[in-house]
Amino acid sequence: MKPEFDAIIVGGGPVGLLLACLLKQQGRRIRVLEKRTQPIAHSAAIGITPPSLHILDKLHLASEFIDAGLKVRDCFVHGQRGKLGCVSFRNIPDEHRFILALPQATTIAILQKHLGSEFIESGCEVTGLQQQADHCIVQTSSGEFTARFVIGCDGARGRVREFIGMRAPGRSYDCHFVMGDFIDRTGFGEEAHLFFTATGSVESFPLPGGQRRWIVQTDRRMDEPPQGLVSYLTHLRTGITVPSSDQVNESVFTPRRFNCDRYYDGRVILCGDAAHGMSPIGGQGMNTGFADAEFLAEVLTKSDPLALLPAYNRFRRKAAKTAIFRAEWGMWLGTWRGTTRSALRDVILKFLLCQGPVARRMGPFYAMLTIPFNTLARVPQASLRPHTV
Questions:
Q1: Cα–Cα distance list, 80 to 200, 237, 333 (Å)
Q2: Whose CB has fewer CB within 10 Å in the chain, the N or C terminal residue?
Q3: What percent of the chain has pLDDT above 90?
Q4: Mind giving me the DSSP string for 195-243?
Q5: Where do the domains of the chain lie, and which CATH numbers do they carry?
Q6: What per-residue string of b and e applies to 125-137 under the rule 16 or more CB within 10 Å gives b?
Q7: What's the predicted TM-score (pTM) here?
Q8: Nearest to 325 by CA among 278, 270, 255, 369
Q9: 8 A C-beta contact, residue 328 and residue 279
Q10: For 256-279, what is the mean pLDDT?
Q11: How far is it, in rounded angstroms, from Cα 36 to Cα 325?
């Protein structure tokens, strides 16, 4: 039998939609299955790095994204006794010398518009998955679909990984956060600010539309934070007044890390947060997923995709492993508490941010320019020829 689709993508988040757009551009028959029927209420990922903008430029969307977001060129770091230094992106070796701040909901909206609603099945939950020799059968709440390949882009708690029984070794971290978006009255403009204190961290990032995100570290996970907690802890630790009446949303998270044993099983492939998870501190998760999507789109348009899946697995697992480590290192240092450890952190950060040769590497480091294989252009092209795998 001839399958209905070349690829079924389970999950209509940023990574799934980007993959769908790239495959559509190559003339592939695709369908995105998304169980949500309404837009997400709160944007998790807000940072888009230069390598991701180059990937989006393949769809001629980079300029639209840039016009919709804010260009963060400087991130100021504060310690217990004041400003320690700045991570600047103004001189990084890329044409995009900034991190783009853009809510995830806007990223989804732009990609949905580019893809077209006719390629998306909303309110469609996957309930079963079977593999045959030359195709897959996907059972859903909306009926049955067949495709040559099924790609799980359904996130860290998605069911596709469960259906194929893929192990995802990892653990949750013993640190917790509450974040909220506020009307911005700080005067910080497009600057990001990180505050590391003896009682916990506070992070602040600009958003389009005159808003700013504040993230505060908490002693324990608070699924129902007391009203005004973000405002209270921000003022306590930084002295900055962020009126609770200006808060427009709120969410809590406890970071977790994992990296699947393998990113595919037969014709079922994992991509983005379904394949790997990392602390959101540093904003690397979605961008790592974008690079997964770019690589996988290339694989699925070759004559023998099955022969190239080991290369996808090898290169993307290595990139994710690096990003996971970096996110963990940054979160580990940033969440130190107590007077002694806070003072030690100040010394470390002052060295990293103010010593010339080291400081110059911080911008490219946090812009993800030094992540291995951060775009397809940095993957040896011989690896994309079946006889080399």
A1: 10, 9, 14
A2: N
A3: 92
A4: EEETTEEEEEEEETTTEEEEEEEESS--SSPPTTHHHHHHHHHH-----
A5: 5-73+92-172+257-388 (3.50.50.60), 176-253 (3.30.70.2450)
A6: bbeebeeeeebbe
A7: 0.96
A8: 278
A9: yes
A10: 97
A11: 32
